[in-house]
Design a protein that fits this description.
single chain, ubiquitin protein ligase binding, coiled coil, mainly alpha, 7 helices, BAG_domain, adenyl-nucleotide exchange factor activity, acetylation
Amino acid sequence: MAQAKINAKANEGRFCRSSSMADRSSRLLESLDQLELRVEALREAATAVEQEKEILLEMIHSIQNSQDMRQISDGEREELNLTANRLMGRTLTVEVSVETIRNPQQQESLKHATRIIDEVVSKFLDDLGNAKSHLMSLYSACLSEVPPGPVDQKFQSIVIGCALEDQKKIKRRLETLLRNIENSDKAIKLLEHSKGAGSKTLQQNAESKFK
């Protein structure tokens, strides 16, 4: 009888210890789950800062190369460029880096995708129109919805092999390049229009002198 009581007490002690360990483990796991959410929120916030930095630099650069900047006095343009350079310098002081964890296959896919884009960019000066069409097909390969134009199937398979964060960065880079090309097209057209208008005015003035 006494032995049975001792055994029962020992079993009870083991049960209590086991129950206590399970509760402690559960609390630790819950804490880690909460921390994981905060870590992901931190990465998302840092990525958002990265994107905002890229957008600000692009906007400053766009203003400096805008048609409006060409149509003001040299003094005003110099003053505005000083302000733009100051803003660009302050923007560049913000250093944010979000490293993406990749396996060897994803690393290789990213290198391949980057190399393809760089090759297209290197051809901008030689054939801007063809380079733009090629970029559009690369961009279409990154869209989840039905693309508006042809898709570079080879590039699409390469991008799918990249890490998800890298896929987003590749898409953003192509969007930026296409916007820059579009802005360049507009600037060239405005310049040609202003030249055409100037030539027409000169011709009219010359004709009026002979009348």
